[in-house]
Design a protein that fits this description.
Blueprint: E1 7-11, H1 15-26, E2 30-34, H2 40-43, E3 52-55, H3 57-65, H4 69-73, E4 77-79, E5 81-85, E6 91-95, E7 104-108, H5 109-122, E8 126-128, E9 132-137, E10 142-147, E11 152-157, E12 161-163, H6 170-178, E13 184-197, E14 212-216, E15 221-226, E16 232-239, H7 252-262, H8 273-279, E17 283-289, E18 294-295, E19 299-301, H9 304-307, H10 316-333, H11 337-369, H12 373-388, H13 396-401, H14 407-425, H15 436-446
Parallel strand pairs: 1-2, 1-12, 2-8, 5-14, 12-19
Antiparallel strand pairs: 3-7, 4-7, 5-6, 9-10, 10-11, 13-16, 13-17, 14-15, 15-16, 18-19
Bound molecules: flavin-adenine dinucleotide and ligand 8RB.
Length: 454
């Protein structure tokens, strides 16, 4: 692209917007970011959403490209596995990887966003706060922003717009007004509500800090992620309708009764359960599918704006960050926006669809499988096969979380592996009953070695 065209406007300075702005500014682009909220460094962070997120290798790698990894990791809390809380109060740590180099990290959303904004500005990106995209004229290439403090309108000419404005994307709405993006929203018939475990009286963590806690209960579950200020954010996921469901568990007293029955060891950890229940809204969960993410060379969507997903693989942010690295690379490699956007979309759309599907599948695994004997047998066999066939049989969770192979490849291989595990353990109760010779032959026949640098 000629020097004059290396100029881009990004809508949304959330997680993806701030990272993409950094990556492009570092490559010499003129970057303008427009964010509907005020500057969080001046008025305190008003994210309004869960305070922590799980960061995995895909996200860390993207942060590394932007020189932001060290600043983020300084505030991150290690989660080395799932701490499963059974109904009888027993707990069991199921490690995510072979050692602590294979782990996920809990990061504070507000701190992360602040760190990324600082880094974006230091790289030379221009961040304009209090600018909410209202609509866009793609023929005249003018974006219309509103300052919600005084209602003032601001018209801004652009060369190309990137929509990093989240699941409720205003840019997506503007694009849909002039073209059919093939938008489909599939709501999950489950929702969530957040609660908090405060620090212990001595200021420490009330439960094991270095784990992602799960209370699997079949059709519903609680999870808890640690925060560096010694609290945990607890999320209850439950059907919208049912027993229990958000239609029957409505009042704070009904919530306490549910916790007393099904999450008895968690209840004493949440002293303000009634207050949290009343204060925090029920959040809806859905998957957003689009057939197209771009409008010629004028606009492109990424992150949640393009492919919002259910939370159960903890990959929404990680995937959004991976999108940023891919889009920056395609913008550098192509002479015009239309070609760059088309190449980006071709690369990322199948991968987004794959992680959307794996995220839906992991809900079932988390709430209903992690305490099941069949599952534990298959999991043990998976670890054994990983050791017997390094670089060929890699556990599903590791492919998604600790590697950067395309999500689409992870999904394909996971399906083959799951079938192998199921066939090899059918009707068996113990690992020593598995027919190793037949299984080894099947692994070699059905799985190619992974590329060495993936
Ligand atoms: P966002 O981070 O939502 O950023 C969008 C930005 O655009 C915001 O700053 C917003 O103010 C701004 N904006 C919106 N509309 C406009 C407009 N009209 N004009 C200008 N600006 C606008 N992912 C993980 O990987 N791991 C996790 O553990 C995890 N936990 C999560 C927990 C919760 C409670 C939630 C809700 C999500 C979680 N996610 C997690 C998903 C993750 O938060 C998202 O996938 C990620 O934030 C997407 O980044 P984004 O930049 O596309 O959107
Ligand atoms: N959005 C996560 C995992 C996988 C954990 C495992 C799951 C809360 C909203 Cl539900 C969930 C995971 O398989 O053992 N890694 O990271 C994060 C998760 O939920 C986040 C905190 C969340 N996301 C709306 C609520």
């Amino acid at each position: 692209m000629n020097a004059r065209a290396r100029r881009i406007a990004i809508v949304g300075a959330g997680l993806a917007g701030a990272l993409l702005g950094t990556l492009l500014a570092q490559r010499g682009w003129r970057v303008d970011l427009y964010e509907k909220r005020g500057d969080p460094r001046r008025q305190g962070y008003a994210g309004g959403r869960s305070i922590n997120l799980a960061l995995a290798e895909r996200g860390r790698h993207a942060l590394r490209q932007a020189g932001a990894e060290d600043a983020v990791m300084r505030q991150a809390v290690l989660m080395r596995g799932r701490m499963v809380h059974f109904l009888d109060g027993r707990q069991q740590l199921q490690r995510y990887g072979r050692d602590d180099s294979e782990a996920i990290w809990s990061v504070h959303r507000g701190d992360l966003n602040l760190t990324l904004l600082d880094i974006a500005e230091r790289a030379g990106a221009h961040v304009h706060f209090d600018r909410r995209l209202a609509h866009a004229d793609f023929d005249a290439r003018i974006a219309h922003f509103v300052d919600d403090r005084d209602g003032a309108a601001h018209a801004v000419p652009f060369d190309a717009l990137v929509g990093a404005d989240g699941a409720g994307s205003a840019l997506r709405r503007a694009m849909s007004a002039v073209t059919d993006l093939g938008e489909r929203v599939e709501p999950l018939d489950h929702a969530y509500r957040e609660l908090e475990i405060p620090p212990a009286p001595d200021g420490g963590f009330r439960i094991e800090p270095n784990a992602l806690h799960i209370w699997p209960r079949g059709d519903y579950m609680c999870i808890a992620l640690p925060n560096d200020e010694r609290t945990f954010t607890v999320t209850l996921f439950m059907p919208n309708r049912g027993d229990p469901g958000f239609d029957t568990v409505r009042t704070p007293a009904q919530a306490r009764a549910l916790f007393a029955r099904d999450f008895a060891d968690a209840l004493p950890l949440i002293p303000d359960l009634e207050r949290d229940w009343a204060a925090n809204p029920v959040g809806e969960l859905a998957t957003l599918y689009l057939d197209r993410w771009s409008l010629g060379g004028r606009a492109v969507l990424l992150g949640d704006a393009a492919h919002a997903m259910v939370p159960f693989h903890g990959q929404g942010m990680n995937c959004a960050f991976e999108d940023c690295v891919a889009l920056a690379a395609h913008l550098d490699a192509h002479d015009d926006f239309a070609a760059a956007f088309a190449a980006f979309e071709a690369e990322r759309r199948p991968n987004a669809a794959a992680i959307q599907r794996m995220a839906l599948e992991n809900y079932h695994e988390m709430r209903d499988r992690v305490d099941d004997a069949d599952y534990l047998l298959q999991r043990a066999l998976e670890l054994e096969l990983q050791a017997r066939h390094p670089g060929r049989f890699v556990p599903h969770y590791a492919m998604v979380t600790f590697m950067r192979i395309p999500y689409r490849v992870a999904l394909e291989r996971s399906e083959i592996q799951r079938a192998l595990l199921r066939e090899a353990t059918a009707g068996l109760a113990r690992l020593d009953q598995v027919d190793r010779a037949a299984l080894d032959a099947a692994v070699l026949a059905r799985l190619d070695p992974l590329e060495p640098d993936a």
